[in-house]
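Recall that a protein's primary structure is simply its ordered list of amino acids. Everything else, from secondary elements to tertiary packing, is in principle encoded there. The following example makes that idea concrete.
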Amino acid sequence: MIDLRTVSFGYQRNKRLYEGINLSLLPGSIYGLLGPNGAGKSTLLRLLSGLLYPKEGSIQVNGYNPGQRRPAFLEELFLLPEEIHVPAVRIREFVNANAPFYPRFDRAQMAGYIREFGLTDDQKLHELSYGQKKKILIGFGLATNTAVLLMDEPTNGLDIPSKSQFRRLVAGAVDENRTVIISTHQVRDLETLIDPIVILSGQGIALKASVERITERLWFGLVSDLDPDHPALYTERAVGGYAIVTENRTGAPSRLDLERLFNVVQAEPERIRKLFSSTLTPANA
């Protein structure tokens, strides 16, 4: 379990990126971490991995204080950063050098990923394309079988078939004992993979909710005309009318649109906070 209690952090003394964040994340889920540029998505992953330290508050990751960087903690966490740098070695040499740090690393699993990517373990890692390097590191992270897997913008640099491959491999590598957090701007790439959703905004957590709860409280749809008597929370022009997000007062089903969800959270943070902190009425329960 990951638990943040009243966590505050800032890179500058008089300017806080976070202020009093409280957040609990349970194993068995693939959390999507969303937020505008500069909201602190990458910073949060670094705090969870012990590369940064909170100014105030506490962080616990599976019972460990990440900042202490104990070996027992490090062998159960893998962080894939957005900016990757690989050594001038063959793939098998990279695996042989790094796998021993992770007690549950599965070499057969990694070999399967390498074949899946259309590569061989005698290829030189530094001579691969950026997308191929990214896939090898993604595969390595999955094969560590750590209790916590953090990925920062993992689909950047992947082509369309590789993004589909990524979703399938990640979905197949998660069980009830593993917590996966994926920070992304590429919401369309991961819409069918991530659940629950965590959105950062305004020095804190603007929304944390499952896809089921989001579609219980909000309705996403396309209408031909806007209703002035019942204004939507968010609207945008679309082919054939308007794509809208409204409060789901009737309990009607709809399909979550992550991009529109992100936009409505940024546009109406207070209304979203109240909506998700309230209790459903019996008619909508």
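Confidence is low (pLDDT under 50) at residues 281-285. The domain at 2-207 is CATH 3.40.50.300 (Rossmann fold).
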